[in-house]
Amino acid sequence: MNIKFILVAAASVAATALPAQTSFTVGAATNVTIGGLFTAGIKNSEVTNTSRPGVKSEWRIDDNTSRLIISSNSKIAEGWSVIFRIESRFLVDVRPTTAGVPGTTITSGQITGWADGDTWGGVATPIGSIVYGKSSFYWTDTISFDYLGIPAAGEAYRIWDANGLATFNMLDQATLVNPATGKATTSAYTLGNTREQNVLRFDSAKFYNFDVSLAYTKNDGGDENHYVAPGTVGYARAYEDGGTFYARARYTDGGFNASFNVLNKVTQGGVYTPAATAGPLDYHAYRLGAAYIFPFKLRVGVVYDKTSYDNGILGRTQDAKRNVYEVPVSYSFGDHAVYATYTKAGDTSGWANTGASQLNLVYDYAMTKRAFIGIFYSAISNQSNAHYAPFLAGTSLGPSNIAAPGENFHQVGLNMNYWF
C-alpha cells in the first residue's frame, strides 16, 4: 500500500469552507467561526475472491473523517478582508496512541491532528480570494454538498462512508501493470488523496453563474527545496523542474451545474533507477461533470475522468491510461433521500482485465438540517487483473485490505453525519 496514501487516514472530503453554527466577534472588525463535522459508522466489511489467510470480514465502529474547523475574517475595507482557516482532524473510534497503520509503529495521532486538514490564510477581494497553505483540489471537486449550498456533478449523499465513496475508490485511482508478469502491481493515487502542501490558490467570485479556481504548488509533498526518492525509486530530474498545476471552471444555474477540471503534476526527482520504472510517474488528468435537479427532487449526474501516469507500465516507456465514468442518481422526499451510484473504470492502456466497477446504494434521513443518519452499501468488483481498493484500506479497515489483484470488497454501514 502506498505510504503517502496510508498517511491520510483523515483525508479531506470538502475543500471548501463549510457553513458553521457558532460565530463570535473578536475586536471591532474580526469574526471567528467554530464548526466542524462529526461522522462515524457501525460497519461490516468483507473481502471476497481472496486466498490470503486471515482476510475475510470484520465488524467495527469507524471514523469517516471527522474534523474541527476554525475560520476567521477581518475587514480591511469594503469588499476586502483578511481570511484564514484551520482545519484539525480527530478520530472518534480510537485513541491517539492506537496503531493507525496495522503492523507498524505509526499511531493514529501521527496521521491526524491539529491543522492537519485544509489550512490556509490570505485575502478576500471583490473578484475572489487568494490564499496559501494546505489545500485539497481536483480529487474532491465532484463531490456535491447540495444541502449545504455547494453543488457539484458527482456523488451527493448527506451521509457518507469514507471507505465507500466511488470518488476516492475509482475516480482517483488507477491500476498499474508490470508487463513482465502481465499482472497488476498496485494502485496509483491522484495526488495521494490528501491535502496538497505549499499551495498558492485563487478562487474567483461568481460572475454570470461562472467561477474559476487556479492553484500551483512547487512541491505538494511539503519537502521544500529537497526531494528524496522513495526507497530505490529515483528520477532523472532536478527539484527545480517539478511542480503541480490545477484549474477548474464551474457553472451553476438553479438546478443545473457543470464543471471542467484539469491537473498536471511534474514530479521532482533525484537519481534515476531504471530497474524500477522507465522514468518519472508524472501524471495528467482532466475531469468533466454535469448534474441536474428536476423540480420533483430527482437528481441525475454524470462524471468522466481521464488520467494518464507517465511510465506507469513498469519497466517500459509506456503510460498507464484509464477512463472512468460515474453516474449518480438520487431522489429526495420530505426528510428522506435515496441514492444509487454506478462507477466504471476501463482497462489500463489496453491491458486485459484491469478494469473495475463499483455500486453504491444509500438511504439517509435528516434528523435536523445539519444531522443525518442512514444506511450505506458499497461494493467494488475488480476484474482478475485489477487493483482498485476502498479508501483508507490498510488503515481504518484493519485486516480487510484489498492488497492483491482481483479481490473484491463490499461493506454495509449505519453512518451518521453531524455538521456542528
The N- and C-terminal alpha carbons lie at a distance of 34 Å
Poorly predicted runs: 1-17
Radius of gyration: 21 Å
Name the CATH superfamily classification.
Porin
Oligomer: single chain
Number of helices: 2
**Tell me, what's the shape?**
globular
- The fraction of residues assigned to DSSP E strands is over 45%
CATH class: Mainly Beta
Number of strands: 20
Helix-strand category:
mainly beta
Return the average pLDDT rounded to an integer.
84
Which sequence of SSEs, written as H and E, runs from N to C? HEEEEEEEHEEEEEEEEEEEEE
The CATH topology is given as: Porin
Estimated helix fraction: under 10%
Please identify, by name, the CATH architecture: Beta Barrel
Tag the structure with descriptive keywords.
50% strand; mainly beta; 16-stranded antiparallel beta barrel; single chain; Porin
Describe what this molecule looks like in 3D.
The chain has 420 residues and is mainly β. The protein has a single domain (3-419), classed as Beta Barrel (Porin). The protein has helices spanning 3-6, 166-171, and strands spanning 22-26, 30-48, 57-63, 66-77, 80-90, 120-125, 128-135, 173-178, 183-189, 196-204, 210-217, 243-253, 256-266, 283-293, 298-313, 318-333, 336-345, 356-366, 371-382, 408-419. The strands form two sheets. It has a 16-stranded antiparallel beta barrel. A two-stranded antiparallel sheet has the order 8-9. A hairpin with a 4-residue loop joins strand 15 (298-313) and strand 16. Mean pLDDT is 84; it is low at 1-17.
